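Structure in, sequence out. Go:
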């Protein structure tokens, strides 16, 4: 799977993508990679941090669109991208809302 293409979209790759790709390729490594990715993100300027957030959103969208092809892989991709977004940014832009009770 071409994670770099999903992360970059139409932009240039960011160095932080290397750690994210390792986490996506190896679910067991993610817990050990969370802090280094977080620390690298905290050193980014605001514009680069904004680009990184959009890359995490692209991963979530890709996982949603392709979930029927490989549910386990899609769930892992979405989990990694959402945990990173929550830890780094505090919230999810595309957070599922509670169903309304009418």
């Amino acid at each position: 799977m071409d994670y770099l293409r999903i992360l970059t979209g139409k932009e240039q790759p960011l160095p932080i993508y290397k750690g994210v790709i390792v986490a996506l390729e190896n679910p067991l490594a993610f817990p050990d990679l969370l802090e280094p990715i977080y620390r690298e993100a905290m050193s980014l300027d605001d514009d680069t941090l904004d680009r990184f957030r959009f890359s995490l959103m692209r991963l979530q969208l890709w996982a949603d669109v392709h979930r029927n092809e490989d549910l386990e892989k899609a769930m892992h991709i979405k989990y990694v991208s959402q945990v990173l977004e929550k830890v780094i940014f505090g919230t999810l832009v595309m957070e599922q809302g509670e169903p309304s009770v009418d």
